[in-house]
């Protein structure tokens, strides 16, 4: 369980970059609470101050359980059973890793759904230590059936994704980050070509906020680049339409998380796959988010080295 000291440090030292996507989420959730009486928000202290006015206006639909992340998901399951559409929010490691059993039992096993919205991503707050790093969250969600995962690459992508998730009835994980591309791309998550190198060219698929670094990494190379903010369900039809014999997958979480999706989609074709993302080794370092991107080879220079070695 997160300590009071941990939570206080997190809230007091939120960077301006981190609040951009989070603030778009809070503003949109506030609007949804006013517009749709089915919407509920469940918190575990993180972002509680941001929802103070919403809590005053909708005391029966904004629930802060305190620093009890497992209870937060259990409450969401109860609200879903009562016919509400719960939006559950905290840091990624507390929401997915710490409360995984409750997601499995109180949501999936009871056949109810919720919208999980995390901040912190893989290593947005490394100065807070290993407790706040969560590169394995999408891989964990992927062990469950039928979840949609959105990894927006720009703050402007957040409001429409949240609105669509709350309006639906499926299980959704919306992963917010401090990292962002220079412009939004939106869409429904189908693969969107942003750089076309022509038929037969190697295909690089960039997920969420790693698009800009990916584009910089392949500058001057004949590589087609496609973007998606929706790694689940993965756009396998789009992949088959775009892929030649070489596919490069760049994801802002655990390396190889979507490898099986690519391999299954192209099982009937000869192909080579390079899966790039956060490494499995515990670096045991603090540093900054930029430092971690560099250490994991997810900055433009690191991606370029990996792509060059793969393509020869």
From TrEMBL:
Residues 19-184 form the Transketolase-like pyrimidine-binding domain. InterPro entries: PDH/Transketolase, THDP-binding, Transketo_C/PFOR_II, Transketolase-like_Pyr-bd. Gene3D superfamilies: 3.40.50.920, 3.40.50.970. It comes from the Bacteria. One of its GO terms (molecular function) is magnesium ion binding. This is Transketolase.
């Amino acid at each position: 369980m997160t300590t009071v000291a941990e939570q206080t440090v997190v809230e007091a030292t939120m960077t301006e970059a981190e609040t951009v996507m989070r603030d778009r989420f809070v503003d949109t959730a506030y609007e949804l609470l006013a517009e749709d009486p089915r919407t509920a928000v469940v918190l575990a202290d993180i972002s509680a101050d941001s929802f103070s006015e919403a809590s005053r206006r909708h005391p029966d639909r904004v629930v802060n359980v305190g620093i009890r992340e497992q209870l937060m998901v259990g409450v969401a399951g109860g609200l879903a059973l009562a016919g509400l559409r719960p939006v559950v929010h905290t840091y990624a490691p507390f929401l997915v890793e710490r409360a995984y059993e409750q997601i499995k039992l109180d949501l999936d096993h009871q056949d109810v759904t919720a919208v999980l919205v995390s901040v912190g991503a893989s290593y947005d707050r490394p100065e807070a230590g290993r407790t706040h790093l969560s590169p394995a969250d999408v891989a964990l969600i992927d062990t469950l059936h039928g979840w949609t995962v959105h990894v927006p690459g720009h703050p402007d992508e957040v409001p429409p994704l949240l609105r669509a998730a709350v309006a639906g009835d499926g299980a959704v994980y919306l992963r917010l980050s401090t990292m962002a591309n220079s412009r939004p791309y939106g869409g429904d998550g189908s693969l969107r070509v942003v750089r076309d190198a022509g038929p037969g060219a190697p295909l690089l698929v960039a997920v969420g906020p790693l698009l800009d670094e990916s584009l910089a990494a392949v500058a001057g190379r004949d590589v087609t680049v496609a973007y998606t903010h929706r790694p689940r369900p993965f756009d396998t039809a789009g992949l088959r339409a775009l892929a030649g014999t070489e596919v490069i997958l760049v994801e802002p979480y655990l390396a190889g998380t979507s490898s099986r999706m690519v391999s299954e989609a192209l099982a009937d074709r000869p192909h080579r796959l390079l899966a790039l993302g956060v490494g499995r080794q515990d670096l045991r370092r603090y540093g900054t988010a930029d430092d971690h991107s560099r250490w994991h080879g997810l900055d433009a220079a690191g991606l370029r080295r990996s792509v060059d070695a793969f393509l020869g």
